[in-house]
Structure formats: C-alpha cells, structure tokens
Amino acid sequence: MEERVVRTMLSTIGPGGEGEGGEDSTDDEFSDASDADGTLFERNNNRQMMTPSVKLPTDVTAETVSNEVSLEEALEEGRQMMIKFIDNRFDEAVEFIFQKGSQNFIYAAGMGVIKSIECLMTMNTSHIQEAINYVKFANEFSNQLRKRHSYTSMISSSLFRSFDYNSYTDEEAHAELIYAGTQIALGLLSIIEDQSIYGIINAAFTIRSSHSTYKECLNILNNKTNWSSDKLREHFESGTRLGIGAFDLFVSMFPNKLAKLLEYVGFHSDRDVALDELNKSVNLPDGYMYDLSSILLSTYYGFVEYFYGVGEGEVEFFEKQSKVWARRTPNSSIARIGLAIQQQITGNPDGAIDLYKKCVFDSSKTFKQLELAAYWGVAGCHFMKGEWADAAHHINILREGCKWSPALFTYLYAIFQLMRVEEEGRLELVPEISECFKAIPKLKRTVGGRKVFHEKIVIERSKRYRNNVTDMILPPLELLYIWNMFNMMCGRKELIEPFLERIDNKFATYKGDKDDDDACLDAYAYLIFMRGVCLRHLGQSDDAIRCFQDVLSCKKRVEHETHLLPQACFEIGSIERKKGNLTEAKKWLKRARDDYSNYMTEVMIQHRTHHLLRCIKKERRERQEDDDDD
Known about the structure:
Blueprint: H1 62-68, H2 71-86, H3 90-100, H4 105-122, H5 125-144, H6 151-160, H7 170-193, H8 197-223, H9 230-252, H10 256-264, H11 271-282, H12 290-307, H13 315-328, H14 333-345, H15 349-361, H16 368-385, H17 388-401, H18 406-424, H19 430-439, E1 446-447, E2 450-451, H20 453-465, H21 475-482, H22 485-488, H23 493-510, H24 522-537, H25 541-552, H26 564-578, H27 582-594, H28 602-629
Antiparallel strand pairs: 1-2
C-alpha cells in the first residue's frame, strides 16, 4: 500500500500532547456531601473520570496500521475494550486504548470516543478542547485511509448512477465509517465550544458532510458483497445503522417546519425509521457499536422520550436488553442505571432508588459523573413520591457540583424547599428560596446560541416569583407534567392520589374565583388542569376531559398562564387517541397546534402535537390496511 502520511492539524496541542488548559481542572468538580440522615450514600470524592493525555503523532503511516494489527483484530479488541469500559473496568480499557491509539484508526477513534464522553460528562472547557483535538486526530487518521475516487469514476457514477462498491476494500469501508462518525462528533463538539453564528454554521457544514458520508456507508452496506469475513460486515453494519439512526432520530425531534427544511436538503425525520435502524444495530450484540447503540436507545427511551417526547417509553426494550447486560457486563454501573430507569418509568421508584444506590455505593469502580446520573435518578424518584426533603438534598448535590444545568438544578432545589415551607411550616427557608430565584437567570446555559427549553421555563418562573416565592402554587406539579412523570406513575394510585389530594386542598381556596367576574382565573385553571392530568392517569378519562374543558372555558380570564389552554387541547386530543377516536383526536391536536402562539410551553406542545399527528396518520393507514385485508 502506498504510504500516506496522516495529517493531524493539531495546532492547539502543545509539546506534551495536551490541549490548552491540559491540566485537569475538575478537582473541585464536586463538593463533599452527605445525605440528610448521613446514611443513604457515602461518596468517593477522589474518583473522577480522568483519562490520560498522550502526544498525538504527526507521522503515522498506513504501513504502520496494516502491519501492526489486522483490521478484524483491531475491531474485536476495540469491542472488548468497550465491554470492559461499560463493565466498570475503566482503567484497564482506557490504558489499552491510549497505549495503542496512534497505531490504528480504530484505536484512534476509541480515544476520541472516551475523550468525548469525558467532556460531555464534565462540560469542562479544557476537556471539550482536548476532546476536539483527539477526535480531529481520528478524523484525519481515517481520512487518509478512505477510498480515493478518480474523476472518471465520479463522472460515470453521476451519469449512469452505477458504482462498483466491491472496489472498496474492507479497510476503506471501515475508514469511511469512522470518518463519518468523527465528522459528526466534531460538529457537535464545535457547537458546544463555539456558539457564535460562525461556529454554528461551520458545525452545520461538518454535520452535513457526515450525513452524506453515512449515506455512502449505507450504500456500501447494501451493495458490497466481497467482505473478507462475515464478522467485518457485522461490525460495519453495527456502526452504519447507529449513524443513520442517530441522525434521523435527532432530526425527527426538531420542530415540524425545521424538519421539513432539513428534509429538503437531504435529511430524514421519520422517527419510526430512525428507531428501526437503531434497533437493528442493537440486535447485533457482537457488533463493534452495539454498546453505543444500546446506551443511545436507553437514553432515548428512558430520558428523552419523557423529558422531550410524549412519554411513551419502550419498556420491552429494557426488558430485552437487561438480559444482554446481565450476561455481557454484570458489574456495569451504566447497565445498573439502565435497569433503574426501567424501574422508574414503570412506576417503581423504590426499586429504582435501590439500583441507583448501588451505583454510588460501588464508588471505587464508578466515575463521579456516573454517580451524578445516579443522584439525578434518586432525586427524580423522591420527586415522584413527594418526599421533598430527600429530593432537595439530592438535587443540591447536583446544584453544588454539576455543570450540566445549574439553572435547572437551582430551580428544582428551590421549589422542593418551597414545598417544605408549605407542608412542614419551614418558614426559615423562604430567604434562601428567594436568593435561589434571583440567581437563576445568571446561571443559564445556551446550546447553539439558544436557551435550552427547560431552562427557559425555569428562568421565566424565577423572574416572575423571585420577590414573592410563596405565591407559587404547587410548582413541582408543573414539572411532573412537562417531564411526563405522571406517565411513569400511570395507574399507581399510591403515587398519584397524594398529588390529587394536594390539588384538592389547594383548590378549596380558589374554588369561588370563577363566580367572581373580576377575578383572574390563573390559579383556578392551573389547579383544574393538574386535577385533570391526575384523573387521566388514574384511568378516569371522562372526568379528565371535563376538567380540561373547564380550563378552556376560562380562556378570557387567564392572564399569565396562557399555556394551559393549548395544553388542555393537547390532553383532550391525547385521550381521544387512546380511546381510538382518531378523527376527534386529530381535531383537538390541530387546535392545540394552530390556535395558540407565544406561550411558555409552545416548543413542547408543537413538538408533541406533531408527533401524535404523525402517529394518528400511521394508525389510520394501518386501519385501512386491515380493512383491505378483510
């Protein structure tokens, strides 16, 4: 093979091979914390995800790659190291990958993946820059090994739409795949690093290039037949399905108008197709990218679907994958978190807490960032149970030591403490709550130059109530609804009825407002809406619909909480869909989508309405097919 020197373009790496600020700056990432009773968790304040920095070479050649280790061996070793990484044998996996990272583009990609995970967990500036450097190295490494197309072949392919994909060697095919993956990683990391308009545009072009490369990988998968072994094809399919599925799933979460624009330039936004691709990757447990596919789908079904979607997580996915995890990575904290999520979304917070605890108790083998994920889960479970002191304590650990979303963590801490003021009479907490509310606007984070949806909500709430925090009415219920946590509790009377009792007790104060023509009905409408949500998830659909219609009857007298009106329409549409009344459901969902604008939860309702309308369209088509079969 002709020698091709790997160009790294690592101008930001110093003589020691570290990025700017290469010294680790996460020593103060976490503060000491103990639980309210001092017994729930014992934290290890020394363990954190710290990966080595190595000097990235500028003179690696293709001969080094091919002679040092075969492609199939490199892929299998990479897969085994990923299994060790997932199975809490972090140090062993990291040491191996970083020792061999400069010898093969597969290992180089592994270094990039580990550095990217580290920076996403810590959101530390030096880690972000270092991750970009390592991903750039893997990108340039794989680029040197990609197939070079002659002008003649490109013209012939364009004119006659034919290309001999068997002309790709196995190494060139996998280099194409690694190049696509590192391209999208560079694009996403660049958005985190540089949120200026120039940075966003540059990242968009990089991501667009990655999508085109993944489409070429799909063509290779569908047309190349001369693989040296079935195992090499399986590894390639695993990565290709992951890339195509992740792209399409990401686009499907965009607002309808933007998704259509992206479809026009070559992207696809069919959520079902995206999930099908990802599940195909997960169904290849011996594939190189199985673990990343499994983590991605677990995150989507257990987190994204609830916090951003309509709360219809695939419990069957967790049930199936839990068997694979138990056999493949029995000691894994990551797998344990996945099992805890399964318990949480099926309405068993106590079982989830036990599993989350094990992740923290096993702190000698668990990175602090995984401990943070466990603390987030524990806080959410106590949230579901209305245990405000425990919820506040665990969210405070995140507030003091986690950089993911300081504004959100501070808001959650404040409203949990506010519930303690109301239910325990802890008036001494009010000044601290007020100070938290005043600090929240200064803690905002942006992605792509825009505030994250949930931070936008908590910032608006904090600005409105920072001088009169005790005027808020059961604020946690709003987030329980927005995050679809009532869906997690669906049918569990012991979880839902305490919230319903709180609503009814509070409603007694505002019950007569509707009869007073001069009264603002914000509080009345909010409580009636939340009562309808509780009744819906207790299986009392008709009573729930009457509550939502009562909210709509307050339209002219709702001053600030105007988001309750489209939310009520959305809820009625959702109930009618569940009942099988698709025409009625469509009417209400379109009303939610088209009749209201410029309200607090508009992004959420637009996205969820768009998703349910697509589901209704699909369900109608399936009904028609069934009728045709009859």
